[in-house]
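Request: Give me one sample?
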Amino acid sequence: MSQLAKIQAEYEQFPQEVASIMISTANEKGIPNASYTPFVMDEFKNIYIYVSGLSTHTVNIQSHPYVSVLFIEDEAKTPNIFARRRLNFDCTATLIERETDQWNQIVDQFQARFGEIIEVLRGLADFRIFQLTPTQGRFVIGFGAAYNISGDNLNQIVHLNKDNIPNS
């Protein structure tokens, strides 16, 4: 297996190694907010979050549907704190209508992954599910080992170097 194929496999597996993601949103004035939430992910790399309507990040998402997400390696597992493995995606959020077939299917996935607490959350009317659809991303596995992510279903990784650093 080539080195790039090994990194591709690591990229595919990495989101399943963590149970929650860091999310960054902005309010109507552009003031950022960082938070976290448990998630489930589908085969197309859509990320689903089940969040309270009372939280700052939910209010922000409803005003501005652009969300940055970060999957990050546990500090206790990293050999170098300056080079933690991490994956980030720029996403657009879409509300999943409550009690639809899609909503029920996603809640079932949350329950399978996180257990009985989801039964409690199902009964709380303020909780919402958002689908976060990634548009691009970056996977970093160490010093000098950063990969841009793009392509259909976000399956293409490209090693980042001085010649292909994006302007954004």
In short: The longest helix spans residues 101-114. The beta strands are 20-26, 32-41, 47-52, 66-72, 86-96, 127-142, 145-150, 156-159. The chain has a mean pLDDT of 92. The radius of gyration is 17 Å.
